[in-house]
Amino acid sequence: MHDPLSEGGTARPITMHGTPVLHTRCAEVTAFDDELVTLVRDMYASMYAANGVGLAANQVGVGLRVFIVDCPDADEERVVAHVVNPELELPEVRTLDDDAEGCLSVPGPSSDVARPDHALVRGVDVYGEPVVIEGTGLLARCLQHETDHLNGMVYVDRISNKERKRVLAEAFPST
Ligand SMILES: [Zn+2]
């Protein structure tokens, strides 16, 4: 899956853990305009500049329900896509995959997070057309991680207090 919007953007600074927009539920997108197209293009440029595999709009300081992925699934097939106003669906019978997870907004460390190994996201694209992204492997993890961001949650909110302290101290040594 390729996304034509994955080229031509300008990288914006990545918002760091602790910034209010990262800890607040993002708003539904209602304006499908040029500004939204530019946001998605810039999100790709920002993600690639930071060597990420996914990025949510609030990670560039915009509190809207938009995320992008450029991530392989369990079959090593690379999925490059954006989704607006996504709804996450997880299987009723869940197999948990406990694996290392990191975040561009908590740069450096990673920590194990158990998540369902299959996920599906339904939403629309920047033109309002339906989008479905089905994920296994790393992509399943990524879809859940990015949906969490839009709900104001960072992956460190899903790990123990002790582990969170370790991760945040490693990412932000001066604080
Ligand atoms: Zn993240």
How would you characterize the overall build of this protein?
With 175 residues, the protein is an alpha+beta fold. The protein has one domain: Peptide deformylase (Peptide Deformylase, Alpha-Beta Complex). It is built from 3 helices and 7 strands; from the N terminus they run αβββββββαα. Strands 1-2-3-6-7 form a 5-stranded antiparallel sheet, sandwiched between helices. The chain has a two-stranded antiparallel ribbon with strand order 4-5. The protein is globular. 39% of the residues are buried. The site of zinc ion has 5 residues, from helix 2.
Q: How are the SSEs ordered, and which strands pair?
A:
Blueprint: H1 34-49, E1 54-56, E2 66-72, E3 78-89, E4 96-103, E5 106-116, E6 118-124, E7 130-136, H2 137-150, H3 161-171
Antiparallel strand pairs: 1-2, 2-3, 3-6, 4-5, 6-7
Bound molecules: zinc ion (ZN).
The site of zinc ion has 5 residues, from helix 2.
